[in-house]
Design a protein that fits this description.
This protein is α/β, with parallel strands linked by helices. The chain has one domain: TIM Barrel (Alpha-Beta Barrel), CATH 3.20.20.370. It contains 19 helices and 15 strands. The strands form five sheets. Strands 3, 4, 5, 6, 9, 10 and 11 form a seven-stranded mixed sheet that branches. Strand 4, helix 9 and strand 5 form a beta-alpha-beta unit. Helix 12 packs parallel to helix 13 and helix 15 runs parallel beside helix 16. Bound molecules: 2-acetamido-2-deoxy-beta-D-glucopyranose (3 copies) and zinc ion.
């Protein structure tokens, strides 16, 4: 039975305040950056004191010293990134990424998988209006997460999304939508707490705030991608889905020096078509099992978000996570979500036995393609090792090539090995095949967000029940 997804009515109220609604992201223009630099020069000419205290934004360490939020969020030009942009290596920031005729190698990479992508039509609009979509909710043929939080793909050969943790009583700590320009005080706090997290960085933000992105890696956090421009992925064409993932992965490679193997879909909006392209690009899909809805603080109030946090904390205290740990959706989106993160970290540590990055809980000691970045496994983490050994972040001024575990020629299944999901698979690189659909997280329990607490995103009934759209 085909039913119409009636999300449009909500679009105004719920989606406008959602995580990553375009206007919530600061769009930084390089022209603005250079005029700011020019006015600094003028100011320096008139005041020697101002020149002496002008922040240095030439490397990660000096940039990390700035703690005045307004100063942190003043655009700057970082030569290695400016050079890459001048060379036309990247799409326009904050625009939907697409293939470029100027980059035939990337197009060729796409074409090598174009024929085997599951034949699923794009749904709705990139801004998340699914009102015109006819979807067979009864069978959920595309395993569309947005519809009913499906995370076990229907298409053959695809790995399940990681949405919870095999380790009990564990809070998988994740922060989305960074790097936030004014995150230094928050990252200082995490450092004081010896707390690492998984950071899902948006490619456009990485180019806007490259030194802030480098800090994430320097501090020992686990870095994953969160697409190029933060759109609803199931609405995009195959070419756009590919480019959104490819260029976010490339931005992180060029600015931080590492090739990530994990990503989180904005709004959780993923289906088997999108999963296939992500897996082909060597990226494991990470969702969540609990949602704080912190990104909605402006419309839901701080008290409501605190209530959501508390509900998860209560679960931690009363045994809800005795079998599987949880991965929780939280953000470094703005000052409010960051202050909630700081308010709750001590309480999380009280209510849960372990608080760890997702990769650590999955014993994924080498999360990147590159060697030289070794994270503790879960046993080491729980025994007190929270540091990582890492090479310094690097920004290159030439176009670094990406290592993509793509292997073509198989029909009907993805033959890429996604190293992220399997520590064992990382040691035998090069084979490029044999990606099993196993998924490393054997747990198949029920995992839903905070049900009931939030009604803003609950939409009209279809078939058996209401659809909850997690933003
Ligand atoms: C991918 O395949 C489709 C369907 O055959 C085709 O229309 C499209 O042009 C291809 N894309 C590229 C970039 O080659
Ligand atoms: C970061 O946080 C600040 C403070 O809330 C906010 O103004 C800014 O838009 C955020 N976004 C980015 C990309 O830094
Ligand atoms: C990680 O290692 C711990 C033992 O230290 C184990 O309990 C857990 O199941 C492992 N996680 C995965 C995803 O294999
Ligand atoms: Zn997001």
């Amino acid at each position: 039975m085909h039913s119409s997804l009636a999300l449009a009515v909500l679009a105004g109220a719920a989606f406008a305040s959602a995580c990553g609604d375009e206007k919530h992201f600061q769009r930084v223009r390089r022209a603005a950056a250079s005029s700011a630099a020019a006015s600094r020069t003028v100011a320096a000419g008139t005041s020697a004191a101002a020149a002496a205290t002008a922040p240095s934004r030439t490397d990660e360490a000096s940039n990390a010293q700035i703690t005045n939020a307004a100063e942190e969020c003043t655009p700057y030009s970082y030569p290695p990134v400016a050079a890459l942009q001048a060379a036309g290596v990247f799409p326009e920031i904050w625009e939907i990424a697409n293939l470029s005729t100027a980059q035939p190698d990337v197009t060729a990479l796409f074409q090598s998988l174009n024929g085997s992508i599951p034949n699923i039509a794009p749904k709705g609009t990139p801004a998340g209006d699914f009102s015109g979509v006819n979807y067979d909710g009864a069978t959920d043929p595309d395993c569309w997460w947005t519809y009913e939080q499906c995370h076990t793909p229907k298409a053959k050969g695809l790995q399940s999304d990681v949405y919870n943790l095999a380790t009990p009583e564990t809070w998988g700590l994740t922060y989305d939508d960074g790097p936030n320009c004014s995150h230094n005080a928050f990252y200082d706090y995490l450092q004081d707490q010896k707390q690492k997290a998984t950071m899902f960085y948006i490619g456009s933000n990485v180019l806007d705030w490259p030194l802030e992105a480098q800090r994430g890696l320097t501090d020992g956090h686990e870095i994953c991608a969160h697409t190029w421009s933060h759109r609803y992925m199931t609405a995009l064409t195959n070419e756009q889905v590919f480019a959104e993932l490819y260029y976010s992965k490339k931005a992180i490679k060029d600015v931080l020096g590492v090739t990530v193997q994990c990503w989180r879909p904005p709004y959780g909006d993923v289906d088997d078509r999108v999963r296939y392209i992500a897996q082909s690009l060597g990226m494991q899909t990470i969702i969540w099992s609990d949602n704080t809805f912190d990104y909605n603080i402006a419309t839901l109030s701080r008290a409501t978000i605190e209530g959501n946090y508390n509900e998860i904390l209560n679960g931690g205290k009363n045994g809800s996570y005795a079998v599987n740990g949880t991965i929780v959706l939280t953000h470094e989106l703005n000052a409010d979500t960051i202050s909630l993160a700081e308010e709750f970290l001590p309480k999380i540590k009280e209510a849960f036995k372990y608080v760890a990055p997702v990769g650590v809980a999955m014993n994924n000691t080498e999360p990147y393609v590159e060697s030289g970045y070794t994270y503790p496994n879960f046993a080491q983490w729980t025994a007190g090792t929270t540091s990582i050994s890492l090479a310094a972040p690097t920004a290159v001024s030439t176009d670094a090539s990406l290592s993509i575990p793509l292997s073509t020629g198989q029909t009907g299944s993805v033959s890429a090995t996604v190293a992220y999901a399997s520590a064992a698979a990382t040691s035998s690189s090069g084979s490029g095949s044999g990606g099993s659909s196993g998924g490393s997280n054997g747990a198949r329990g029920t995992a839903q967000g905070i049900v009931g607490a939030i009604t803003a995103a609950v939409v009209g009934a279809i078939g058996a029940g209401a659809i909850t759209v997690m933003l």
